[in-house]
Amino acid sequence: MGCYNVMAVLVNERTSSSKELQDVLTRYGCIISVRLGLHKTGNACSEEGLIILQLCGSLEEIKALEDSLNSIKGVKAKSIELSAE
Length: 85
Prior knowledge:
By secondary structure, the protein is α+β, with helices and mostly antiparallel strands. It has one domain (about 5-80): Alpha-Beta Plaits (2-Layer Sandwich). It has two helices and four strands. It has a four-stranded antiparallel sheet with strand order 2-3-1-4, with helices on one face.
């Protein structure tokens, strides 16, 4: 199985959703190969950010992660499977 699944996670309410978001990411940590977090910095951290995940797992596990993330208020996740075929 190749690891050609990427998920983008848009977080609109970082402060209020961070604990639940971290809990979900920890629960699915075994299928997350790479996690990259992006947000504006400055005098104060932005309330919105983008997380990019590279995933190595079954399509069922990836779908379960996506559904769990989308159940969090202020979080929107979308996955894509890339293929050379």
